[in-house]
Amino acid sequence: MNLRRISFSWLTVFLMLALLTGCWDRTEMDELAFVMASGIDLADDGQVEVTLQIALPTGIPSSLTTGGKAKKPVLVVSAKGKDGMEALGKLQQQLSRRINLGHRGVFVFGEKYARNGIVEAVDTLLRSSESRFNSFILTSSGTTAKEILNSPYQLESIPSIGISNMQDNDFSFSVKTDKFIEMSASLEVSAVTGAIRTINKKTDSETFMIDKSAVYRKNKLVGFLSGKELKAFRLFKGNFNGMRFTVQMEPPKESYKGTVAIQLLQAKTKIRTRIRNGMPEIAVALKATAQIMANDTPTDFNKETNLHSLEKKFSEEMQKEMTSMISRTQNKFKADIVGFGREIHIEHPYFWKKAKSVWADLYTKVPVSVKVDITIERIGRTQAHPNVQAK
Amino acid sequence: MIRIKASPKRIDKRVTDLVHIAEEPLSDNLDDNEKVLQQIFSNCNDLIIRKLTLYKSTRCIAAYLDVLVDESLWNNGLLNPLVKQELEDFDNQGELFEQLKYRLASFVTPQVINNRKEAVQRIVSGDVVLFIESSNAALSFSIKDQLQRQLEEPSSEAVIRGPRIGFIEKLDVNMALIRQRIRTPQLKFEKVILGAASRTDIAIVYFEGKTPQKVVEEVRQRVSKIEMDSILESGYIEESISDHPYSPFPVMQTTQRPDVVSAALIEGKAAVLVDGSPIALVMPITYWYGFQTVEDYYMNFIFASFLRWLRFLFAFMALTLPSIYVAVTTFHSEMIPTGLALSLAAAREVVPFPAMVETLIMEITFDALREAGVRLPRPVGQTISIVGALVIGQAAVQAGIISAPIIIIVSLTGIASFLIPHPEMNQAVSMLRFPMVVCAGTFGLYGVSAAVIAILIHLTNLNSFGVPYLSPLAPLNPSELWDVLIRAPWKIMHKRQRRIRPKMELEEK
After folding, report:
1. Domain, as residue range, for A198
2. Which pLDDT tens digit goes with each residue over A183-208?
3. Does residue A34 belong to the interface with chain B, where contact is any CB pair within 8 Å?
4. Residue B333 is nearest to which of A29, A62, A64, comparing CB atoms?
5. Given B344, B397, B447, which is nearest A17 (Cβ)?
6. φ and ψ at residue B18, rounded to 5 degrees
7. Are residues A260 and A366 in the same domain?
8. A60 touches chain B (CB under 8 A)
9. What is the pTM of this model?
10. Which residues of B143-161 are buried (b: 16+ CB within 10 A; e: fewer)?
11. Domain extents in chain B
12. CB of B334 within 8 Å of any CB in chain A?
């Protein structure tokens, strides 16, 4: 009785497993081509070109392979096709291992492709079960995705791991796939990605660099933010870790340059919206604390009045930068990358119902006021340098 | 063991005759009795029949098996006093018996026997039987030779802190070891003799007032139903009285330690001791006893609780680690962190087998090595471990037949399974690994979870002498969890009045 019951239950389990499951996707790890990064470009002939950076496990140095010249640890292949899937199919025909996108950490849009619209690629990213939502989305700036994936990187054996580590840290502006898809599907906010470019081209030290962010409007690339604008944008996004600012406190003299540098410690952005005469108004208030990193002036910041004037100077400076960044997005990109639309949706849902279809155009006319309040909490070591003491 | 099936037809006539003769009562003729004994014990060279003359030249014979009888006790303790006995006059044999009984009681306790069958049984169990002229009764004296080994620490249940004494093959000694720990008349030993040929003494031990009567009654009943020719080890009993003999999981605890049995008795359990076996059976138990050791109760309770969780964790690993590895690498490679995935892929690059086959090969090899190590004498055992570690471990990886991660997984699994303190539970877990790996290799993590669920369903269906196997977790009894999930301090445990509540709705079979 008991034995029969046990064998029966095992048989049931096995039959259930065999008959009720859908996909049989057993593959050994040495039969897979792990795609570490992929890129999509628009070729000159109007076709789509897909580039894959595939890791070669045999090229990865391990304790077992001793001696001999180390192999290149990645393989970069590309193929053209009517769309991304066709190109991928062509790529599979030149590979002995199955393309596996499960470990793709980086996805790069070529600049030309992005300017023509990215809807098709976004749909594929959303639809495919293999692509992961925590890989980073980047846009190439001034170059193609193919070139980015082909450019070497010294610090990691696999360049795409270098890219994703750079993005993982707060050193650069980063957007992951899930966030990107959400942004590009939303009417409340315009999509942005980090932007990558190659530097030192045609030299031995050729490599890539992520120092910009790409702005999309209605799923087409419209431009890049860099330098101060990118900093201001990151402040809006709360992505300010270790961000530094330098201001000219005093006119430069022979013995000093007159600059002070601070590093942000904490920052909080508050966005308030108001509807006046059927027109939204936006007020942004940034409260931040900072510490002094460098002081190349004869001013002694131990004195409270000096500190206050420094705080004021910084506040004004940052306010100027943020306002100019907003006006640039309104006038040049016409893209609400900060996501004011979302705030309006939350605070004035009835207004938003009427406005959401025209928000992209309405945004350009919305007045935005920015108020910055910086408090310097730490001034570093209080021992002053000779210039201060001489006073 | 060779068993010759004794069908009634085959029993030859001589044996039937003997059985027939043995059934009869003793004759009052001394020569007749001797003749019958010679007949029954024909070809038994160890039978000694000595003729003696008692007071007033009463002839008598003493029959015994010299291999079982303590020679010096027999010569000095019994033979001398018997022969030199200054007996008073007696009119009939009855009076002689009374006198002998009382006078010899100071040396050994004589017992009166009336039939041949009993006489024969006394002789084979090591007694000296004294037949007296013109009497149809005999006296039996128990002067067994105490063949026994030293009391030693049981090597399979070693402790760092705790008593260093273990059971031996002698039932009386084992009983004494328990009695020394529980000094109360409430501790009961019920003796049963089982086995047609071996006539093994079995003791059912329980603590009156603590062990539930239903459990004792159930044990008694199940033991009495055993029909076997011989019982040479407690394993025979275990299988015969088990609730679930077809399950890989043990429903009785086996132990060689008197302190374990005593603790169990005080907790309200019953035990069965078998003569000739140093292993005692304790019942009922739950699944969680597989992860508790007696030392948990001797050491710091915080560390003991930590050890318990370590055992739970590693027992789970022992069951699932190889299958999870196989499932994840062959079905869900995206689940592995990228860096690890690349090194695993690099290690697998040269290996010709699929991960499942590779794992099965190494798991089987590991079990073979372990079994070889158990059976071999110690010096040869070392050779095995060297061959295992160097040849199979290192050389196979260098030759590219087996990938290094598999070696790590299998060794880790092996170590994990040794963390389960009870060998029966360990065997169950080690065996279930193989179907788990096959499930993982065919259906991925889906198969692994299905197999784990199947095992869980099986566990919930088990019970041990009326106690659900997963209790007190299923059915949930929060107040009992103090001794399952952690080892609570004695202060709490003492208050809590630990008691197993058997649900004695046993299925009638």
Report:
1. 29-58+69-226
2. 988 888 999 999 999 998 888 888 89
3. yes
4. A29
5. B447
6. -60, -45
7. yes
8. yes
9. 0.83
10. bebeeeeebeebeebebee
11. 13-142, 155-285, 297-468
12. yes
